# Entry
Amino acid sequence: MTELEDLMKAAMAASVAKREEALRLLKGQLPKPEPYLTLRELSRALGFGVTTLRRWKIPGHDLGGFQRYHRSEVEAYLRSDDFKRRQAALRAERRISAKAAAWRLKPQTPTRKENHALLQRPNHHRQPSSLSSRV
# Structure
């Protein structure tokens, strides 16, 4: 078989979408490249906050010292197993920090400075001394 016959067999075995894409490429109709998005543009498009996307460490491209993102790449990452593991780790970390914060809110013994401030307060609940009532 010649190379042309091999190429024709491969083209006929391909799906309709692949054949149409190959014809467009042969005609010089190149697909438009996907635009690079800033983190803010990406957060608006996906509906997540900027801080959330940073915490998730989404993949990006360094363009002149600035991070830019392809929406399709980020969506693929959000569906990946790597992201699911990262998300589970972040949830566990948040649970641990919430427990630590609750522990810190428990009543603690006052510091020396706080004790000093408490001792400097006037005692309003004391009864007048018996000496001042004698006249």
About this structure: The first strand starts at residue 61 and ends at 63. The beta strands are 61-63, 66-68. The radius of gyration is 34 Å.
